[in-house]
Write a structure and sequence with these properties.
heterodimer, A: 397 residues, mainly alpha, MetI-like fold, 2 domains, 19 helices, 75% helix, 0% strand, B: 419 residues, alpha+beta, Immunoglobulin-like, 4-stranded antiparallel beta sheet
Chain lengths: 397, 419
């Protein structure tokens, strides 16, 4: 029993160590270091020795002293066998081992004999591995997007693995792609159009959605149930089947290539979500407050303006943020309706840029960074609001 | 009293709801029905532009004192394929002017010229000249003449509104379009994308639901792919996966994991041999599915996490007392609690993946075996510019979706409503 759980412990912990060391090695390779071998077996065996030492030492010496001395010892050995690597790389290895040994804190010879220990060990290390794996898989493309925008096409063709930034260059040189896309490719205009369309969509959607949501939440009228179910069904309907009829009608009405046309479509497609989210919130407002308003002789306009809106500001702002994000990220309709560079939104402009095979990739990535940053910023800043809104069934995608 | 009150309430409700409903009807519901109309028509992209009579005005002075002007109107039919009937032309001139060469088709009365130019066939062109003279021999200002724009009008058929219908489009959809392959590709993409997103969602939710440091950061990071703009993310992936200088291939070659770069997005099949058997894997499609999973597992993650956090802790404590292992806890406590949300997620993601256009379009453009139904709508409607055909494919999509929704509600809908 004891032997089994110790074996499982050693194997899974060394597997985890191998993983994080490999990720560190990959990241360093992308800084231009010339590694050609992940050295998996070596790392795995040193992982086994390291975890064995950790468990054997157990609580006999102070935890901090233990992990520091072990990490120091191992990174020194690592340095000894890989002399070519620079100091910052070894320092990274040191930190990685420090993190790893710190995670082994709760294991010692005694604890390994507890019930279900082997399952718990696997669970623990899968969790650790999962976190590292998910974080890496998700952040890596974003990282590549960012660093590519600071490199040049030629440098990347010569060595596609060297993403190191040359800080000896001047700032204008470093941010050159950003200057170029603003000056040559007119990105300031696209930013303006994208913001205008998105903010416009937010305003118009709220103007239409707040009264409608109020009616659905509070008033009795014929067809109310039908309306609230059809809101959900419309929400499920795909944008791609709307494209051809809208394109033909918009062409004939001269609404293509116009911000106004885009605004109408975005508003109509976000309205069902907005109404759905808002009416849920409006229902949670106590009815007595409105009755007081009715006593004071307010009509529905006054009730919405003076009672409902001030009370539901958090919900309204989260809906507003969502609608903004949907409109900002929208691509299909802007692809269909806009063909003159004068009226491009950011997404459409980037797609247009990529259509030209001559466009260097760093410009494409600089554009991508510009279109991504505002959304991520909004998301990170207002995460709590947005997450509760998301789970109540919003954002289509 | 209460009767009038409820009447008032109804009227208020309708005024509040109507604007939103009308807008959604016009932009969302109307097109779905318009698709049916268009799909039975033999109509191409170039047909939908309504032909217009157009005129370009050129002004020249032909006498020394500037009292005589020659005005040339370059008239044309904007359409290359359709005629315009009963074209009328109208222009205004300053007072005290007369026209020296009045065309027989025209009338000149009180500073206005009105012409009946008859029918114009497609591509029709004409140079229409007028010589204008000031009666008093004074100079005519060229600028005022130039700034006055002529008004043209005419009748033409709108091919969208005619009533000749055909079944040609549907025949083409089912017989000439590799329909079976199209359906299978769509199905693979939708099904594996959905299942993959849900599996990864469950894994991620399990991770974040444990007591780990930086849990809220982790939740935020996990949602990045979902909230990021699709254009930026798709192009980043294309760069990453590029066979010539993409990071992923370069890394794999560098660490000797593969011998030569693999064109992950441009190669239709790859042969994998397992235990001596050769399997043909649809490579580009698989890559696109992985992108899809990467981008949409966060949604599944978020919903499942919300459900997991609502499971009472006492259930797990009781299981602990009974001596249940972590695996048993997961199978007997966690899974039953999340099946309902998983079935809802399955439906939502299935429908949305089924309609996914942007991701595939930006990654492969529908090439190398990644052509799904939504991509086909675009290709037929805009690349081949056969609008009727594109609409027919849209109708197929709507039909399949309705069928799926009905099946879903029959099978799982009732259960999902019980939570």
């Amino acid at each position: 029993m004891k032997f089994k759980s110790i074996t499982i412990f050693l194997v899974s912990s060394s597997f985890f160590l191998t993983c994080i060391l490999s990720i560190w090695k990959i990241m360093s390779t992308l800084q231009g270091l010339n590694f050609t071998n992940l050295n998996i077996t070596g790392n795995f065996f040193s992982g086994i020795i390291l975890s064995l030492l950790c468990v054997l030492i157990g609580n006999r010496i102070n935890h901090l002293i233990k992990i520091f001395s072990l990490s120091f010892l191992f990174s020194f050995l690592y340095f000894y066998f890989n002399e070519s690597s620079p100091y910052w790389y070894i320092f990274g290895v040191f930190l990685t081992i420090l993190f790893f040994t710190n995670k082994l804190k709760k294991y010692n010879i005694k604890s390994l004999t507890e019930d279900f220990m082997s399952e718990k060990i696997i669970f623990d290390f899968t969790t650790l591995f999962g976190i590292v794996f998910f974080a890496f898989v998700i952040l890596f493309p974003f990282y590549i997007m960012l660093v590519t925008s600071f490199k040049t096409q030629i440098a990347l063709l010569v060595n596609p693995l060297d993403f190191s930034l040359d800080f000896s260059k001047s700032l204008t040189e470093l941010f050159k792609s950003y200057f170029v896309i603003f000056e040559t490719y007119n990105f300031s205009r696209y930013i303006l159009i994208s913001s205008a369309v998105s903010i416009g969509t937010v305003i118009v959607t709220l103007l239409f959605a707040i009264p409608a949501a109020y009616a659905v939440a509070r008033l009795n009228f014929f067809g109310k149930n039908f309306l609230s179910t059809s809101i959900l069904i419309i929400y499920m309907f795909p944008a791609i089947v709307l494209v051809i009829p809208l394109y033909t009608v918009f062409s004939q009405l001269g609404l293509r290539n116009s911000i106004f046309g885009l605004l109408i479509v975005y508003t109509a497609t976000t309205l069902p979500v907005a109404i759905y989210m808002l009416q849920g919130y409006f229902k949670s407002i106590p009815k007595e407050i409105e009755d007081a308003g009715i006593m004071d002789g307010q009509n529905w306009f006054g009730i919405i303006l003076k009672i409902i809106i001030p009370l539901s500001l958090p919900a309204i702002s989260s809906v507003a943020l969502y609608v903004f994000m949907i409109a900002w990220n929208e691509f299909l309709f802007s692809l269909m309706f806009l063909d003159s560079p004068k009226s491009f939104t950011l997404s459409r402009a980037i797609q247009y840029l990529s259509g030209d095979a001559e466009t260097p990739r760093q410009y494409l990535m600089a554009g991508s960074v510009i279109v991504t940053l505002p959304v991520l910023f909004i998301f990170v800043y207002f995460e709590k609001y947005l997450v509760s809104g998301l789970t109540s069934g919003s954002v289509k995608g | 009293m209460s009767n009038t009150l409820s009447k008032l309430e109804k009227r208020t409700a309708y005024t509040l709801v109507l604007p939103a409903v009308l807008l959604v009807f016009a932009i969302v519901l109307f097109p779905i029905f318009a698709n049916i109309w268009i799909s039975f028509k033999d109509i191409e992209l170039k047909d939908i532009r309504i032909p217009e009579p157009r005129a370009k005005k050129i002004v020249k002075s032909i006498s020394d004192d500037g009292s005589e002007l020659k005005i040339v109107y370059k008239l044309r039919n904007s359409s290359l394929i359709q005629e315009i009937r009963d074209v009328k032309f109208q222009d205004k001139f300053p007072k005290n002017t007369s026209i020296l060469n009045l065309d027989s088709r025209c009338n000149f009365k009180s500073k206005k010229i009105i012409c009946e130019l008859g029918d114009w066939e497609a591509k029709y062109k004409e140079n229409f000249e007028i010589i204008l003279k000031n009666i008093d021999g004074e100079k005519i200002k060229k600028e005022t003449i130039k700034s006055q724009k002529p008004i043209l009008s005419g009748k033409s058929d709108n091919p969208l509104l005619t009533t000749n219908f055909t079944l040609k489009n549907f025949k083409k959809v089912f017989y000439e379009n590799n329909f079976i392959d199209l359906l299978l590709t769509t199905f693979y993409f939708t099904f594996f994308g959905t299942v993959g997103a849900i599996i990864f969602g469950i894994l991620a939710a399990q991770l974040v639901n444990q007591n780990i440091q930086g849990r809220s950061y982790m939740r935020g990071i996990l949602l990045f792919p979902y909230v990021g703009p699709v254009v930026a993310l798709a192009y980043t992936w294309t760069l990453l996966l590029d066979p010539n200088s993409g990071t992923l291939n370069a890394l794999l070659v560098n660490f000797n994991i593969i011998e030569s770069p693999i064109n992950l997005l441009g190669q239709k099949y790859i042969t994998i041999s397992i235990l001596g058997f050769d399997f043909k894997l649809r490579l580009a499609l698989t890559t696109v599915i992985f992108f899809e999973i990467w981008r949409y597992f966060p949604l599944a993650f978020l919903f499942i996490l919300a459900r997991l956090q609502a499971i009472p802790k006492s259930l797990y404590e009781a299981a602990e007392v009974d001596g249940a292992s972590p695996v048993k806890k997961f199978i007997h406590i966690t899974l039953p609690q999340i099946t309902a949300i998983i079935s809802i997620l399955f439906m939502i993601r299935f429908i949305w993946n089924f309609n996914k256009f942007e991701d595939i379009f930006l990654l492969t453009g529908g090439a190398s075996g990644t052509r799904t139904l939504p991509i086909n709508v675009y290709q037929q409607g805009f690349a081949v510019s056969d609008i009727g055909m594109g609409s027919a494919v849209s109708i197929v999509i709507v039909m399949l979706l309705l069928a799926f929704m009905i099946i879903y509600f029959r099978l799982i809908g009732k259960k999902a409503n019980e939570i």
